[in-house]
Amino acid sequence: MSGAWPSEDMHVHSTFSDGAAELGENVERAIALGLRRLTCVDHVRRDTDWLPVFAGAVADWRDDPRLEVLCGIEAKILTLDGDLDMPDDISGADRVYVADHQMPGLSGPIHPREIRSALASGETDEDEVIRDLVQATSRAIGRQANAVIAHMFSILPKVGLDEARVPLVLIEELAEVAAAAGARIEIDERWSCPSPRTVAPFVRRGVEVLASTDSHSLDTLGQFRFVRAAFRELELGSAAQVHRV
Hints:
Layout: E1 8-12, H1 23-33, E2 37-43, H2 51-59, E3 68-76, E4 95-99, H3 112-121, H4 126-143, E5 147-149, H5 168-181, E6 184-188, H6 196-204, E7 209-212, H7 226-233
Parallel strand pairs: 1-2, 2-3, 3-4, 4-5, 5-6, 6-7
C-alpha cells in the first residue's frame, strides 16, 4: 500500500499507556501501510517512571530507512498558567502533545461534568470557558519546546459547547503564539477536530500541520477520513507539508 496519503500518522498509542498494540507492532503496521513518518505517543503523568524505557523502544527503530519514527508524550493541561501533567525529566521525547483532557483551572484540572454544571447554573458562561481554554493552551505551548497542540478543542463537546463558537480572534492569537514558539498542531481523526476553520490561521502563519489518527489499535492506524478531507480543504498535500523534525 505504498503512496498512502497523508503519508504519516503522528499520534499513535501503544501498550505503554492505553493502546492495544505493542509499540513495535504499530511501527510494523505503519511500514506495511507505506507511511513515511510515525510518532509513537503515550500518555504520561507527573509520576510516570517508564519514559526512558519508552524512548529506548522508539530509538530501536531510529535507523530503519523505511520509516521515520519519533517519540512523543501526551500530557494534559493542568492549570490556566499552562502547567502540564508530565515528569520533570522528559529526556528522549521528541515532541510533547499538549492535550485538553479536562478543563484547566486556577489550581488544577476540572472535570467536564463540573463545567457543564457551572454553565447550566450560570456560575460561568461560554465566553469565559472558551477564553480560559485558549489562554491555558497558549501558555502551555509558549512554555514548552517541541509542543504539538493535540486534538485541539476536543473538550468543548464534552462540556456542551461547539468549536464553531470559538471566536476567530482568539484562534488567530493562539496561532501567533504557536508560530512564534515553533509549535505544531495536529488534525485528529479520532476526535474529528480541530476543523479547517480553526486550523486555517495556523496554516497562514506557516505552522506545521500533522495528520494524526490518535490510534489506540492497529486497525485504525493510518486510516484517515476526517483528516484527509480537512487536508484537502486546507490544500495540504504531501508536497505542501514542511517537515521540521
